[in-house]
Design brief:
single chain; 163 residues; mainly alpha; 6 helices; elongated
């Protein structure tokens, strides 16, 4: 069975997608600009949420072509994945509208852009890295099954995050 060898990276993959989809795009698309510039306000969500997310996610995924850190057996990998949970309150404390309970602690648009850059870059990098590591943690003849299992855990993370 492949699962005992890949369970850590499988759970990392699930958790990464769960955190990502718990705030993107449901919360992040509701963040509004704090500026008074009508042109920037018109394009704020398209640029700061969707364009930044797509570009940084792609850069993160591409980065694994030449940087694969931490290694596949590192205890740091689950830690990095777990630390991403901090993005949930960070985004919720941005200028999300319509709000009724939480204060806006990060009103300036720059905060949201920095959070979105780090969030998307880390998502792309960690997902790509973890998907590479799953099949590498098993014997060569088990790699195909490990890849299939990783795909299941990717879908599980998407489902949990969407829920």
């Amino acid at each position: 069975s492949d699962f005992p060898q890949i369970w850590v990276v499988a759970l990392c993959l699930t958790f990464t997608h769960t955190v990502t989809l718990s705030v993107f795009p449901a919360i992040t698309a509701d963040v509004e600009s704090a500026t008074l510039d009508p042109t920037w306000n018109k394009y704020f969500t398209s640029v700061s949420c969707f364009l930044v997310s797509s570009v940084m996610d792609w850069i993160g995924r591409s980065t694994t072509s030449f940087i694969t850190w931490p290694n596949k057996n590192s205890k740091l990998l689950p830690l990095l994945v777990g630390v991403r949970i901090v993005f949930i309150p960070l985004f919720m404390l941005c200028n999300v509208q319509n709000r009724s309970h939480l204060p806006v602690l990060f009103l300036n648009d720059a905060w949201f852009l920095v959070f979105m850059l780090l969030f998307s870059l880390s998502n792309g990098y960690l997902v790509s890295l973890i998907m590479c590591y799953g099949p590498m943690k098993v014997l060569p003849h088990e790699a195909e099954m490990a890849g299939a299992l990783m795909t299941f855990f990717l879908a599980l993370g998407l489902t949990l995050g969407s829920a």
